[in-house]
Fold:
Amino acid sequence: MESTSAAVSDRYDLVLQGGHVIDPANHRDEPADVAIANGRIARVGRGISTSRAARVVDVSDCYVVPGLIDIHVHYFATCPRLGVSPDDHAFPGAVTTAVDTGTAGWRNFERFRREVIDRVKCRVLAYVNIVSTGMEIPANEQDPWQMEPAPAAEMARRHADVVVGIKTAHYMQPGWTAVDRAIAAGEMAGLPVMFDFAPRPERSYADLLLKKMRPGDIHTHVYARHIPSIDENGKVYDYIWEARRRGVILDLGHGAGSFWYRLAVPCIEQGYLPDTISTDQHTGNVNGPVFTLLHTVSKMLNLGIPLADLIYRSTVAPARAIGRPELGTLSEGAEADVAVIRLQHGRFGYWDCGRGKMIGHQKLECVLTIRAGQVVYDPHGLTMDDWRSLGPNY
Ligand SMILES: [Zn+2]
Structure:
């Protein structure tokens, strides 16, 4: 048996040859080939035999990384339209797994699943909104009667294969009702909660971080203008570090209004980086300032954070945050979700939610995205043959 499996083991569907692999889950940051067979990672290492590979792609000037994981997107096309098409907006940004954060609640989740999650190539997971109709009916987001923990938790349990948590967002009324009910649903379903939170006099951000959130719960939009991360002297508040020690997760969540260099830069300079990098992609930001997750990662790269660290915060860290540690890796046997990215040097503009621009000299371009072994984004035709070699017949 041993020799038989060895004989067939180099029948790869695709070998990515000569790239630089960054795979933080396996502590790999070095030149290596990646071989894919039957939709899975077959081997990672130097000098992989290609004699029986169906296709070999030279990626020698590129990084090969696990497909990125974006834990804050809106992919449910509600009316008025908020969500964008997963396959159109994830793959160009090197993303193979994305988590819709509460666009749907328990009343419309099964429609979302039927119409989007089950139809697209991108692996779409979800947080169920504590509001029954999610973000589809904006008035309901302000109505505590629409926030029922039991049916939200029941929907999460029924769709446990794709639901990774509970979401609360946009609540502008006084008090903690939305937060408390989301936590109650999280307790019932045994899942983390993601908070989009607006502080008010009676509900402080410090109390959210230190008294309400449980270890593993996620606050998204950490560099938003309405979130007090730094004091009037520009110093990061102590409660941020304390929240870190408690094990709450602090997520970027760029969005149309939640990434400001004026906040992000002093935080990053003091070592306060987001645990996870996410976009909050929706109709209001995919044509700027967000564009894609890789574009957001490029901003962080130009703010001085090393690439390997950024790959960690957009693969391993989000995989853990959603309780799916099998994702975001190039481990042998894992589903082959892979991105090939090229680091360009030049002069590039990056703008934030305050229409403030930063000129950077590095830009990451996604040149190949592979989802479950299938090429889903290949803007330069890396996996194609020269047309002159294809012969006379169509
Ligand atoms: Zn959002």
